[in-house]
Amino acid sequence: MSELWVVLTGLFGGLNIFQFIFLRAERKKAFAAAESIVLDNNRKKQDLKQDDYEYLTKKCDKLTKDYFEMLDKAQKAMADVSELKCEITYLKGLRCYKTICPERIQNKNGNENK
């Protein structure tokens, strides 16, 4: 009878150990799959951030280029305005008929002929 108990205990005890080992292996496999999914999601998130960074870098470069083009145009326009102001001042001086008028200009350089 004791031999029967030893055999039954060995059979059922062995199954429980195998079941326990199987469950531990399945649990480790599930954790590994979950960890793999988390790592994959982190990689995808990093790829999206890299894409955003590249897009923003290109956009910033384009805006910087546009800014400098507009700055050049504005400087040219200010130079044109300055030239036109000089021309207006010269033309006002030509129309002034008073000989002691400070606005009177007799030549384009601004020097009065005496």
Entry keywords:
single chain; 114 residues; mainly alpha; 1 helix
List low-confidence stretches. Answer: none
Radius of gyration from the CA trace? 45 Å
Question: How many individual β-strands?
Answer: 0
Shape: rod-shaped
Domain unit count = 1
Mean pLDDT across the residues is 81
- H-E string: H
| Cα end-to-end separation | 145 Å
Class by alpha and beta content: mainly alpha
Quick one: biggest sheet? none
Count of separate DSSP helical elements: 1
Q: What is the strand content? A: under 5%
What portion of residues is helical? over 70%
What does this structure look like?
The chain has 114 residues and is an all-alpha fold. The chain has one domain. Helix content is 82%, strand content 0%. It contains one helix and no strands. The mean pLDDT is 81.
Detail the topology: elements first, then pairings.
Elements (H helix, E strand, L loop, with lengths): L1 H94 L19
Short description:
This protein has 114 residues and is mainly alpha-helical. The protein has one helix and no strands.
